Amino acid sequence: MTITVQPNAKTTKQVTRVNSWNGWDPLRHVIVGRATGTMVQAPEPAVQRDFAEDGFPLGTYGPMPEDMVAEANEQLDNFANLLESRGVRVERPTPLDFSQKVATPDWSHDSMFGCMPPRDVLLTVGSEILEATMCYRSRWFEYLCYRPILQSLFTADPQMRWEAAPKPRLTDASYVPGFWDVYNTLTTKEQLARVAAHDLVLTEAEPLFDAADVCRFGKDLFVQLSLVTNRQGYEWLKRHFADHRVHWITSTNTHPLHLDSTWVPLRAGLVLHCGERLADAELMKYFRLNDWQIIEAVQPASWQHSPRLSFCSPWLAANVFNLDPNTICVEEKEVRIAEQLDKLGFDVVPVPFRAVGPFGGGLHCSTVDIERDGVLEDYFPRRSGRF
């Protein structure tokens, strides 16, 4: 177990343990990202950024503005301090020079991205921390920001399993040629049909997935097929976590990107889903069959708010972060969702975090569990449909 440090508490030793089976058991040890050096990344096959009104029209790239970086880092530091004040150990990544050009024998790319959203890169399942493949060339080397932490954990915890999914080649064969030129001309109905068929920017040339497309419910892992996760990625995860039930799901979002603002576990038996896009019908049936309550998130307070240089949707409001089954962190301006969670019996902790969104996400995105109390449990004893 970990001996956590409470304010003014005296302790002689901290024992490091990697252990996390879900996102709601009591938190003991966590990674919180940094905004330092983040780039509007150079254009590449998997992603395009077009922030013409903010000085970065399509095809351009460069460092995020210094004032935005400073404000985001202040909020990230304050969040880390809040966690530490509650007895949680906090680790921070080591930023690289994200402005540098990167290359492999197959390609070169004019920039990297950043290390604010560690949730995209690392997946903790029990005593294992897994480095995801990543499908953006700008994020291929991002795992290096977390290697000092992982090396330290591996040294300190003899039970820790440190794994890395096969590093992808990311040649042109991994992407559908001209995808965005075509996709951006389609109607919403046509785009949703492509999403349902998982006919998106990634081919099946190699396994590709972001860790944030995986949602952990003990014995069951749910993998969203998206713009950054393909069927090969799901298949690799299914084989790798052979002792789990690993399920694929699709989205009703025209631009599906990560699962943790769409299908959000709050505690055992209770899940929040995005109010704008209904979850997969088979998924909802599976949860209800196993006596889970599904709550539709209220419309975010940020519905009309669009921060500079942000690629996140207003539903980042649902990107909440549990400290334990009864305590949950919510962005301070998201008062509607805070009130909704309060009525469900949660102790809501408001956290200033709006400035962090343009750097890759919200409270959940900015973290990776290292240790939570709890053991592997089966929350879904009854089967349904393809699940």
Order of helices and strands: EEEHEEEEEHEHHEEHEEEHEEEHEE
Number of alpha- plus pi-helical segments: 7
| CATH fold-level topology | L-arginine/glycine Amidinotransferase, Chain A
Structural class: alpha/beta
The N- to C-terminal Cα distance equals 34 Å
What is the helix fraction of residues, given as a range?
10-25%
CATH homology group: L-arginine/glycine Amidinotransferase, Chain A
Low-confidence stretches: 1-12
Strand content: 15-25%
Strand order of the largest sheet: 4-1-19
**Domain module tally:** 1
Major sheet details: 3 strands, mixed
Categorize the overall geometry: globular
The Rg value, from CA coordinates, equals 20 Å
Mean of all residue-level pLDDT scores: 93
* CATH architecture annotation: 5-stranded Propeller
| Overall strand count | 19
CATH top level label = Alpha Beta
Write the SSE topology.
Layout lengths: L26 E6 L6 E2 L21 E2 L2 H20 L3 E3 L10 E2 L4 E2 L12 E4 L2 E4 L15 H10 L4 E4 L14 H5 L4 H9 L17 E4 L2 E5 L6 H10 L4 E5 L13 E5 L2 E4 L7 H9 L3 E4 L24 E4 L2 E5 L3 H9 L3 E5 L15 E6 L15
Parallel strand pairs: 1-4, 8-9, 11-12, 14-15, 17-18
Antiparallel strand pairs: 1-19, 2-3, 5-6, 7-8, 10-11, 13-14, 16-17
Explain this structure to me?
It is a single chain. This protein is of the alpha/beta class and 387 residues long. It has a single domain, classed as L-arginine/glycine Amidinotransferase, Chain A. The chain is 19% helix and 20% strand. The chain has helices spanning 66-85, 147-156, 179-183, 188-196, 231-240, 281-289, 335-343, and strands spanning 27-32, 39-40, 62-63, 89-91, 102-103, 108-109, 122-125, 128-131, 161-164, 214-217, 220-224, 245-249, 263-267, 270-273, 293-296, 321-324, 327-331, 347-351, 367-372. Helix 7 links the parallel strand 17 and strand 18 (347-351). It is globular and about 45 Å long.
